[in-house]
Design brief:
The complex is a heterodimer. Chain A is of the alpha+beta class. Helix content of chain A is 55%, strand content 18%. In chain B, the strands form two sheets. In chain B, strands 6-7-8-3-9-10 form a six-stranded mixed beta sheet, sandwiched between helices. In chain B, helix 5 runs parallel beside helix 6. Classes of the chains: A alpha+beta, B alpha/beta.
Chain lengths: 405, 233
């Protein structure tokens, strides 16, 4: 048996029948591309989600009003109040800090002849530490600002850039919903996330100023609770306790749906993925189905090829080929197709992941897991080629050479 | 003696799994340089005999000596090597690979040869010249006539210097003028020392061989020799 010669025989056949190679390589390519793109996007999203959770604070539990939270929007539910914050502060055990904030979306803001709409946060000084959202330049709010309902603010990076360009905004005046504020500082860069949008398009003012000078709103838009550590067990325990405190505060009876939503860093991470787990599994399943179709087609088409190439098998045997030679030749034919399909699939997968990431604003990444899926598909497809190859090798040469009726 | 078959038995199983004898205690001796035709009605066992001679099929019992060696019981690897180096096959359906050029078809036996080097283009051209197909090395089988395809098949059978050519109805798909040309070529090869065993239905074709064997019911019923042009074989 001469493996190199048998491989060359297989390549001769593959080159001579490009149509068949394309037909069989296509499902392998599709399966590989789909698996690779899905995994690459997922890997990118997971990294981004982790980053989002980290950036939000891995020890921070968020409570929002309403039973359903839409990512990036503050909502209109009014179920949270400062009394809720006090109740949690009094009754909750094992937390590090708690803050209630007021939030207003799309607040018209201008500076000179430039203007924009930004998300306005009314907060107290501990919020900066709790949300890891302090001042990069200038100073954050202090207790005096809160007590005096001072008209001071901190601009997010996007707001600072859009309103002041390359100018230093600190000490300058901005008009927030037609009320003049002095810029005290510029917030740290946070970037954007599917869950919270552009986190740099924000303006932070004292919570009292928010209420006294802009929006006479009693309710809170968010309560954030910082745990003593970021362990899942601690967070889950706090979540249960917060839920029970708020349900009793809101006098909800058993079986009644909560009028607030508690989110742990893990669910914030999940929301930040931008592609739900279900869609991920669906795409991966589709890749699996494509892989199965590829395997099925290879077995079917090669099986048919073995029948239609009986004469060829017979004459090769007559000329000195052993069953092992025939096995290798037919298997390598399948292998060539699998590898071609795999390579095309890898290129399509990378292109697809890149295109999808660019069009949907998603991230993608290539780790070892991303490489394993295409390799597994190519391996399965090439192993599938062994089935018809074995039947070709087992053909009786005398029978194979007999004229077909 | 190139071939010596002694008391060969061969049977196949029918659909019910019952053995159907095809060759019965058959004995045959073929000298080197012989030109033998095997004829007989369909199912008389001539193709089975040819397959056994070509080591494509195994005998149930008896002994097969090829050039003094008992090849009947050899393992498949050795039998494949024997087919490759010493036996050439020519079939009614030519069995050329349509996707390979004439040159690649002729060189095909080298794919399974562990001893020699693949012949170069000049050697193939020279072989093609000897079968009257000069200049056709880069053609594909589909571009050739039936007679030309059979000549390519003969060249392929000869490329490794086979001693024995086994031809199963080699002229079955050819018109009579072309068939005579193939037989002329066979006669020439015999003169060069090759041994040819040819299965044919056609008495006129059979008459061209120097030795005509008739089979019936898995046995040889007549074995006639005639004077060849170059001497008695």
């Amino acid at each position: 048996m001469n493996t190199a010669k048998n491989m060359s025989a297989a390549f001769q056949v593959a080159v001579a029948m490009p149509g068949r190679v394309i037909l069989l390589a296509l499902p392998v390519a599709a399966a590989t591309a789909l698996a690779l793109a899905t995994l690459a996007i997922d890997q990118g999203l997971s990294a981004k989600a982790e980053q989002a959770a980290r950036s939000f604070g891995q020890d921070v539990i968020s409570v929002r009003p309403g039973s359903r939270v839409i990512a990036g929007q503050s909502g209109t539910a009014t179920s949270l109040s400062t009394e809720d914050v006090e109740a949690i502060r009094e009754r909750l055990r094992g937390y590090k800090a708690i803050e209630g904030t007021r939030v207003e979306d799309n607040v018209p803001t201008s500076a000179g002849n430039k203007s924009g709409k930004y998300k306005l946060f009314g907060v107290r000084p501990p919020w900066a530490e709790l949300r890891k959202f302090g001042a990069e330049r200038g100073e954050f709010l202090d207790d005096g600002d809160v007590q005096g309902s001072a008209r001071v603010c901190l601009l997010g990076q996007t707001a600072a850039r859009e309103l002041f360009g390359t100018q230093d905004p600190i000490g300058q005046e901005v008009s927030i919903n037609q009320v003049p504020f002095k810029v005290k500082g510029v917030l740290v860069t946070k970037g954007s996330s599917p869950a919270e949008g552009d986190r740099d398009a924000r303006i932070v003012i004292p919570v009292t100023t928010f209420y006294d000078r802009l929006y006479k709103r009693v309710h809170l838009d968010q309560i954030v609770v910082q745990a003593r550590n970021s362990e899942q067990a601690t967070l889950t325990k706090l979540e249960g306790e917060i839920e029970s405190i708020l349900r009793s505060q809101h006098k909800l009876t058993e079986g009644e749906k909560s009028d607030f939503t508690i989110r742990l860093p893990s669910s914030i991470a999940e929301q930040s993925r931008g592609l739900s787990r279900n869609v991920f599994y669906l795409l991966l399943g589709l890749a699996g189905v494509c892989g199965l179709v590829a395997v099925f087609l290879i077995v079917l088409v090669f099986g048919q090829a073995v029948r239609s190439r009986r004469g060829e098998i017979g004459i090769r045997r007559a000329m000195g080929a052993t069953p092992g030679d025939i096995l290798i030749q037919f298997w390598v034919e399948g292998l060539v197709i699998s590898i071609i399909g795999g390579l095309v699939g890898v290129l399509l997968g990378i292109g697809g992941a890149y295109g999808l990431a660019a069009s949907r604003g998603l991230d993608f990444g290539f780790g070892p897991l991303v490489a394993i899926a295409p390799l597994a598909i190519v391996l399965f497809a090439s192993l599938a080629g062994l089935i018809p190859a074995r039947s070709a090798a087992g053909l009786d040469p005398a029978q194979a050479l007999r004229p077909q009726v | 003696m190139l071939i010596e078959l002694t008391n060969i038995d061969k049977s196949y199983r029918d659909r019910q799994g019952q053995p159907v004898p095809v060759l019965k205690k058959l004995c045959l001796q073929v000298e080197k340089g012989a030109f033998v035709s095997l004829s007989g009605a369909s199912g008389c066992g001539k193709s089975t005999l040819l397959n056994i001679l070509g080591c494509l099929d195994r005998l149930d019992s008896g002994e097969y000596q090829f050039d003094g060696e008992n090849v009947g019981g050899w393992p498949e690897g050795q039998r494949a090597d024997l087919r490759n180096r010493r036996i050439g096959f020519v079939f009614q359906a030519f069995h050329l690979l349509p996707f390979l050029t004439v040159e690649a078809n002729i060189a095909l036996p080298f794919m399974y040869n562990h001893h020699g080097q693949r012949p170069n283009h000049e050697q193939i051209e020279s072989l093609l010249k000897s079968v009257d197909l000069e200049g056709k090395s880069q053609r594909f089988p589909g571009e050739l006539s039936g007679g030309q395809m059979q000549r390519v098949a003969i060249a392929r059978a000869l490329v490794l210097g086979a001693d024995l050519i086994l031809a199963d109805e080699p002229t079955g798909n050819l018109d009579s003028a072309v068939a005579q040309g193939v037989l002329d070529l066979f006669e020439l090869l015999v003169k060069q020392g090759k041994t040819i065993v040819m299965v044919t239905h056609d008495p006129a074709i059979s008459a061209r061989a120097y030795r005509q064997i008739k089979m019936e019911g898995g046995q040889i019923v007549s074995d006639n020799r005639r004077e060849s042009v170059g001497g008695a074989v």
